[in-house]
Design a protein that fits this description.
The structure holds 2 protein chains of 2 kinds. In chain A, about 80% of the residues lie in helices and about 0% in strands. Chain A is mostly helical. By secondary structure, chain B is of the alpha/beta class. Chain B has a single domain, classed as P-loop containing nucleotide triphosphate hydrolases (Rossmann fold, 3-Layer(aba) Sandwich), CATH 3.40.50.300. Chain B contains 7 helices and 10 strands. In chain B, helix 4 runs parallel beside helix 6 and helix 6 runs parallel beside helix 7. Classes of the chains: A mainly alpha, B alpha/beta. At the A-B interface, helix 1, helix 2, helix 7, strand 1 and helix 9 of A face helix 5, strand 7, strand 8 and strand 9 of B.
C-alpha cells in the first residue's frame, strides 16, 4: 500500500516537473519573441502567452502537489489559501490571451473585420470578469462558472472565425495550438476529481501536461522564426 | 536620394532610397516594418516634401502606432488615404479608385518631391488574384515614376506564397527584408538589404532595434 502511494507521489512529482519545465520553456520563448518584436499588439500577444505559461506552471505546482488535499477532497494548508488566487490569475491570463489574439487576428484579416464585435464585447466581459474575481472571495462559484468558462467559451467562439478570416499562416498555426491547449485545459478542470488522492491527481495532470506542451507550441508559433547559416553572415 | 529618416539605414544604402524608386519592406507582423514608413514620412514632412500615406487602417490607429514608436507627428501630418478619418476614403474593393486617387495626388503635386507610404499590398494580394495585383502595381509604379516620387510599401511575410513574394520583389527597385532569426534560444530581429537600385549587393545582416531617435543598426556576425 505504502509502495503504491510512493509510486503515485513519484509519478505526480515527475508530472509537475514536466508541466513546469514545458511551461517555463514556453514562457521563455514567448518573452524572447516579445523582445524581438516592436509593435504593441504583437508584443502584448507574446506577453500574454508568457504570462499564461507561467500561470500554468504555478497552477501545476499548487494544485497537483502530493498530499495537498484532505480525504474529503478539500484543499489543505497552503493550497487552501493560495489556490483560488492562482486559479484566478491563470483564468484571467487565458482571457487576456484570447482578447489580445482577437486584436492581432483583426490586423491580419485583409478586411479588418471586428470578429463578433469583439472591440465592444470585450469591455463588458472584462468588467464582468473583474466583478467575478472580487466575488470569488465570497464564494468560489463565480470563479468556476464565469472566470473559468469565460476564456474557454470566448476562445471556442473566436478562434475558428479568426483562423478562417486571417491571411496569416503563422497566426493560424498559433490558433490551432492554442485551441488544442484550451480544449485540454477545459477537460482537465472539468474532470477534476472531487476526492483528490495522489493517484487521481496523476491522471488529472495528464491532460494538463499535454496542454502545457500545446501551450508551448503555441508560444513558439507566435511569429515565423528562421535560422541563419554562418555563410549568410560571412 | 531620399533620406529614410534613419541615419544608420541611410549609411548602408548610400544616403537613402534612390530617386524615382519604389522600395518594398518585407517582414512578419509586429517586427516594425511600419516604423520605416513612419520615419520616412516624418523626415519628408520636415524636409518639405509632399507625403501621402495610404493605409487600410484608420488614421487614428496609425497615429496610435506612430506614438508607440515614440515618433512625434502631431505638428505636420501627411495626406491620408485611409479607410477611416482620412482626407481621401480608401476602399479595399476598389482598385481603380485607389489608382485614380494616387494619380490625382501625384498630378496635383507635380514639381515637388513626393513620398508615398502604403501598407495595403498584403490585403490587396489576399483579396485579388496575384496576377491582377502584379499588373495593377506594375502600371501604377510606372505612372508614378514620371514624377519625383519615392514609394515605400510594406508586405507581410507569412501571408503569401513564396512565389508571390518573389514576384512582388521583382516589381520593386529595392527590397528591405526584416526577419526574426533563431540563434539557440535567442530570437533576433535582423535586417538586410536584399536589393537596392544603385547600391552594390549587400549579403550582410544587421541586428536592429528602435529608439525614440530612430533605428539602431549593428552589423551581425553569427
Amino acid at each position: 500500500m505504502s509502495s503504491s502511494i510512493g509510486q503515485a507521489e513519484v509519478a505526480l512529482t515527475a508530472e509537475i516537473v514536466l508541466i513546469i519545465a514545458l511551461a517555463v520553456y514556453g514562457g521563455y520563448r514567448a518573452l524572447g519573441i516579445r523582445h524581438a518584436l516592436f509593435s504593441r499588439t504583437y508584443r502584448n500577444q507574446a506577453l500574454a502567452a508568457a504570462v499564461a505559461s507561467l500561470a500554468l506552471a504555478f497552477l501545476a505546482l499548487t494544485n497537483l502537489t502530493p498530499g495537498s488535499y484532505s480525504n474529503s477532497g478539500s484543499p489543505t494548508g497552503f493550497l487552501a489559501i493560495i489556490g483560488p488566487i492562482f486559479l484566478t490569475v491563470t483564468y484571467s491570463a487565458l482571457f487576456y490571451m484570447v482578447d489580445i489574439t482577437a486584436r492581432a487576428g483583426r490586423f491580419s484579416d485583409p478586411l479588418l473585420r471586428d470578429t463578433l464585435h469583439w472591440s465592444q464585447v470585450r469591455k463588458v466581459l472584462w468588467a464582468l470578469n473583474i466583478l467575478c474575481i472580487v466575488l470569488t472571495f465570497v464564494t468560489r462559484i463565480f470563479l468556476l462558472l464565469f472566470t473559468f468558462l469565460l476564456p474557454i467559451v470566448a476562445g471556442a467562439l473566436l478562434f475558428p472565425v479568426l483562423a478562417k478570416r486571417t491571411g496569416d499562416i503563422v497566426l493560424r498555426r498559433h490558433l490551432a495550438w492554442l485551441g488544442a491547449f484550451f480544449a485540454l485545459f477545459f477537460l482537465s478542470v472539468l474532470f477534476y476529481p472531487s476526492v483528490a488522492t495522489d493517484t487521481e491527481l496523476v491522471f488529472d495532470g495528464i491532460p494538463l501536461a499535454i496542454g502545457a506542451l500545446f501551450l508551448t507550441m503555441s508560444a513558439r508559433s507566435l511569429a515565423p522564426l528562421s535560422r541563419i547559416s554562418a555563410t549568410e553572415t560571412a | 536620394m531620399a533620406s529614410s529618416g534613419i541615419p544608420a539605414l541611410d549609411k548602408i544604402m548610400a544616403d537613402g532610397y534612390p530617386d524615382k524608386s519604389a522600395v518594398l519592406v518585407v517582414g512578419p507582423p509586429g517586427i516594425g516594418k511600419e516604423a520605416l514608413g513612419y520615419w520616412f514620412t516624418k523626415t519628408g514632412l520636415v524636409q518639405g516634401d509632399f507625403c501621402l500615406y495610404v493605409t487600410r487602417l484608420s488614421v487614428r490607429e496609425v497615429l496610435q502606432d506612430v506614438k508607440g514608436f515614440g515618433i512625434d507627428m502631431d505638428h505636420k501630418v501627411p495626406l491620408w488615404l485611409a479607410s477611416d478619418g482620412g482626407q481621401i476614403k480608401y476602399d479595399i474593393n476598389d482598385l481603380a479608385g485607389l489608382s485614380f486617387s494616387i494619380k490625382e495626388v501625384l498630378k496635383q503635386n507635380a514639381g515637388r518631391r513626393i513620398r508615398i507610404v502604403t501598407d495595403v499590398l498584403s490585403s490587396l494580394l489576399m483579396l485579388n488574384q496575384p496576377e491582377t495585383i502584379y499588373k495593377f502595381l506594375d502600371q501604377l509604379l510606372a505612372d508614378a515614376k514620371q514624377y519625383d516620387v519615392v514609394i515605400l510599401a510594406t508586405l507581410e511575410e507569412g501571408m503569401h506564397k513564396p512565389e508571390v513574394l518573389a514576384a512582388m520583389q521583382q516589381l520593386f527597385d529595392g527590397v528591405v527584408e526584416l526577419r526574426l532569426y533563431e540563434e539557440g534560444l535567442r530570437v533576433l530581429p535582423l535586417l538586410r538589404i536584399r536589393k537596392m537600385r544603385g547600391v552594390p549587393p549587400q549579403p550582410g545582416y544587421y541586428s536592429f532595434s528602435f529608439s525614440r531617435t530612430g533605428m539602431e543598426l549593428t552589423s551581425y556576425v553569427k
